[in-house]
Amino acid sequence: MSRRNPIEDLAHLRHEFGEHGGVNMSIEASSTFTVMDPHTIPEMFQGRKGPEKAGCYLYGRHFNPTVYNLSRQLAALEGTESAYCTASGMGAISATLLALCKSGDHIVSSNTVYGGTYALLHDFLPPTTGVTTHFVDITNVDTVRAAISDQTRVLYTESVSNPTLRIADIPRLAEIARDAGITLVVDNTFSPLILSPAVLGADVVVHSMTKFISGMSDVIAGAVCSSHRFIEQLMDLHSGALMLLGPTMDPKTAAEISLRIPHLPLRMAAHGERALALAERLEAAGVDVCYPGLAGHPDRPLLDELRCPDYGYGGVLTIDLGSEERANQLMALLQNKYRFGFMAVSLGYFDTLMSCSGSSTSSEMTDEDKTAAGISPGLIRMSIGYTGTLEQRWGQLRSALQDIGSIDAYSKAG
Ligand code: PLP
Predict the structure, then answer these.
(1) pTM of the full predicted structure?
(2) What are the chain's domains?
(3) I want to staple 26 with a disulfide (CB 3.0 to 4.6 A). Which of 18, 224, 314, 343 is the partner?
(4) How far is the CA of 362 from the centre of ligand 1 (A)?
(5) Which ligand 1 atom is nearest residue 93's CA?
């Protein structure tokens, strides 16, 4: 369905701003901006002038030309009218939800979301804002529909759930949200380029650009992609959640990330190719592996219907070792003995990163919610890197699995 390939729209955007002879866009390292006419400042405060209206800039927490240019690239990536970049993925998510909900409102959310998002919805918002959340199995559309009440304002999901790797049926969720008159917000952190949630019907797409989009685990960054109207609402000087809470991006970070967007397609394809190859070998060796590209994954047909076929099935797979102790044993061997990857949270790095989700990035969830979401104590999330060769990495992974007795040393695995 969404066979759109965003790179066609992305190709020209980096050159629209700051053409002073260099091949890269300039960094506008100013926190405040001059005007030629004293009336322009009040006009910007009244919302009558701005980056899109007469090309005016006021103050860096509002809009900055470099951040704005990266934001245009994000809008092209996601196929939205507009976008704006934030200091973190959580900045994008929290500003979006605070803009859409007021006290007493209700959110229906997937029960499998990043632990920080869960903590925001489950622990932070109710006492501070009176906004409550009902968590549901997002793959069961009847349950989703039944959870929506008159107070519901937002349907929230990750396109690929962290860490269980279930795929949200975005077109059907969009239909449900449209029928109910509520806003569908999709976190597309795990699947940039692979899925285009806004093209599939989502109203707002949020990103942690800390992950695949930046690709080097050296910056914290986020983005909100949506209509002009919603981005203007977020940036309104009097009531905008992004403007007033202040998690806007630094222009130097924006310039750095803009240099990585051109090779995001190559990186996503490389992550996906390596992850699929390792997942297939793990499966053949009898390891309990989950990867959306495997023929037996329950959502593979849905993903095939929704994805752009040029970027594979994503860079993340999980292995369930049965207990946290065995998971820790394997990760320690993989890092310290075999140099397969690093024990670290996060994802989208060029090397493999691995963490035990239940005790790390999903540890904010209650035990009951972890069980309902299918996050077992022995689940290792691996963000598969593309360094080294496939044979080298498979050899390291196979040896560590053999050391802990997960696969037979004499098996034909590999
Ligand atoms: N969304 C997802 C799916 C994530 O995995 C994360 C971080 O781990 C976030 C959002 C939060 O992003 P950030 O750490 O950039 O605030």
Answers:
(1) 0.96
(2) 6-262 (3.40.640.10), 263-403 (3.90.1150.10)
(3) 18
(4) 11
(5) 10
